[in-house]
Amino acid sequence: xxxxxxxxxxxxxxxxYFIWGCWYVSMGAxxxxxxxxxxxQIGLAYGAFAIGAMVSPFLVGLIxxxxxxxxxxxxxxxxxxxVLLFLLPHxxxxxxxxxxxxxxxxLYVPTLALGNSLSLSHxxxxxxxxxxxxxxSSVGWIFGLVAVNAMGGATSPTQFYLAGSASIFFGLxxxxxxxxxxxxxxxxxxxGEVLGLDALALLxxxxxxxxxxxxxxxxxxxxxxxxxxxxxxxxxxxxxxxxKTSLAQVSDVVFFLLLPFFLRRLGYKRxxxxxxxxxxxxxxxLSVSATGGEWAIGLIxxxxxxxxxxxxxxxxxxxxxxxxxxxxxxRGAAQGxxxxxxxxxxxxxxxxxAGQVQHHYTLETPTSDGITHDWxxxxxxxxWGAVAVLIFFAxxxxxxxxxxxxxx
Length: 408
What we know:
Oligomer: single chain
CATH topology of the largest domain: Growth Hormone, Chain: A
Number of domains: 2
Order of helices and strands: HHHHHHHHHHHHHHH
Number of helices: 15
CATH superfamily of the largest domain: MFS general substrate transporter like domains
């Protein structure tokens, strides 16, 4: 039975991230080339995902945990989300596109938490089996990018039609998942518990407060990559752009497997510092690549391949740190709080500022090669921002004392 469950959950993770991979990377290129939105509007569009992340705790905590079985709610969210994805290509103005995209993200983002919760509640050996199941999310993302690229949909509405079809299939697929009844049916759930505000007590620890502040600040330069990379490579006329960027997910799988080794050898502080340093290297590589030269293509590939270290050493390690600091009693609240910071307010601030910077460095006259932005300057902005975060974190964060040592 567990083998069958693992197969079903692997398929779930694959489909869930296939949908996301179909549109998230390429949306910026589509909005610029097809709808002619400016940098500010594109940044706001990417911020729609952050708004969905801020809405998600209400939907999951106030509705899913109290009234509906998880697999049925996932099915409804997938089907409704697919319908909205089919409608997105028919929106030509920014106002209608942005509003519909926010509505879609408010439906999609809760599936991430619900899917993880459902998986963890049914896997007999979650610590071993969940990472293996979760690896298929990276595989799904890669296949989404490859599929859109094969259909020539990077700058066309095709990406949304493909994602919409996959979302409806995803919704139907969820009905074969194991029955997962609401965990708090009839309970009086406090708003503070839903939002993870109970975890605010952890901010009394200086290092934890420093960690939360740095995670918020690093989200600002982080989203420059997601908002701008597709447009950058489109202006460079990269062929098979989405296939090449999918190497980031291959890197993600590799570094995900390496993370336990680095944490054992380096601890939380040095591992997270290494993650921030990789973001700095990524952005300076992209900035130098924008000046041209024989190393340009190699530097862009370096930036893409650094993704696993950038993401896993910073955010996965960070989530494990939060779990250790919170302990069993406050685990749920702490993870909800960090998710709200990273994917909610941090994501919105980063996406918004990335769009502002891109708009600021739009060239009045395109170059002879068709370049319409000062990409060297655009990529330097998040690089120096990440440098400031690294220095602050290195000075003020303290490696947590292991519980065993603390008790001794």
